[in-house]
Design a protein that fits this description.
The structure is a single chain. The protein has 295 residues and is α/β, with parallel strands linked by helices. 41% of the residues lie in helices and 19% in strands. It has helices spanning 18-29, 51-54, 67-77, 96-107, 136-141, 171-182, 207-220, 228-244, 248-261, 267-275, 281-289; strands spanning 7-13, 37-43, 58-60, 82-85, 91-92, 111-120, 123-127, 133-134, 153-155, 185-196. Strands 1, 2, 3, 4, 5, 6, 7, 8, 9 and 10 form a ten-stranded mixed sheet that branches. Helix 2 links the parallel strand 2 and strand 3 (58-60). Helix 7 (207-220) packs antiparallel against helix 8 (228-244) and helix 8 packs antiparallel against helix 9. The protein is globular and about 55 Å long.
């Protein structure tokens, strides 16, 4: 039998939460995987990460500041067959890597994801896809939160993160879409990654960056506007982001577009409620995150 593929894991960090980073590294190193496993941490914050404490190499991000540049810095330093990502505040659960490698081999695929367990405010919620493959059409219709960057495992060199993503927003969605266009994503529909919402600097509610990231996706993937459900979702997200910034006219304009694409789009009335001052954006997000959902 041939040897299992070697795997390199890239863990980007801003260096501002060392305890979470140590937990993330330890969970990756604890994987019961029969092949060679290499791990690199990429310091994107310039704060300095103690490599000796972590037990893995620490590299400085020499490319574009932000997640895409950090991921590409790590991938360029690896020589493995496969590459995987893990955010510094997420945890790989036991069996994650072996299950995905087996699924990839069985499917003859080149890109895999898995279901996740969202942790927020002490509560954990499993998010499943209900399928063993994810297509480009699926990712146009829905962002599919379980196709999360910390679940990615793929052939090294097949794809790179796009460093033009404004503020690093949606670079993982873009990467998954490009992968799914090449070949359906192999999905292990078991929660094998714990995604800890609320602790990441990369995840901070930077509404202007989120707007720029959604505009970038619409420009880069015009087919998003062709799927009425997917278009309504993005327009609703834009409406909410503008409402969170207090830009009421823009929020109403995008909410109307969301209703036009899909009259039942739930984000549109939520955005209008935020724009009208009925409920704060932070309150809405807190309620959604507690249920394992985002806006």
């Amino acid at each position: 039998m041939s040897a299992p593929p070697s795997v390199g894991v890239v863990i980007p960090t801003c260096g501002d939460r060392p305890e979470l980073l140590r937990e993330a590294v330890a969970a990756v190193l604890a994987q019961d995987y029969p092949g060679r496993l290499a791990v690199v941490v990429v310091d994107d914050g310039g704060r300095g990460c103690p490599g000796a404490e972590l037990g893995v190499p620490v590299l400085a991000n020499r490319r574009t500041p932000g997640l895409p540049g950090a991921r590409n810095t790590g991938m360029a330093a690896l020589d493995t067959d496969l590459v995987a990502f893990c955010d510094d505040d997420d945890l790989w659960l036991p069996g994650k890597l072996a299950a995905q490698a087996r699924a990839l081999a069985a499917a003859g695929g080149e890109f895999a994801s898995c279901a996740i367990e969202v942790e927020h405010a002490g509560r954990r919620v499993a998010r499943l896809a209900g399928a063993d493959t994810v297509t480009a059409a699926d990712l146009l219709r829905s962002r599919m939160v379980m196709v999360h960057s910390s679940t990615f495992l793929f052939r090294r060199g097949a794809l790179w993160a796009d460093e033009s993503a404004p503020g690093g927003q949606n670079e993982d969605w873009d990467l998954a879409l490009r992968a799914a266009r090449r070949r359906p994503i192999t999905h292990v529909d078991r929660p094998l990654v714990r995604v800890r919402w609320g602790g990441s600097s990369y995840y901070a509610a930077r509404w202007a960056d989120r707007i720029a990231g959604l505009d970038w996706m619409l420009d880069r993937h015009p087919e998003l506007a062709a799927d009425r459900r997917g278009a309504a979702r993005v327009y609703g997200q834009l409406a909410f982001a503008y409402a969170a910034l207090g830009r009421r006219r823009a929020a109403v304009r995008w909410a109307v577009r969301a209703f036009g694409a899909r009259p039942g789009e739930p984000r549109a009335p939520i955005a209008l409620a935020v724009a009208a001052g009925i409920v704060p954006a932070a309150t809405v997000l807190g309620l959604l995150h507690g249920r394992g959902h985002g806006i």
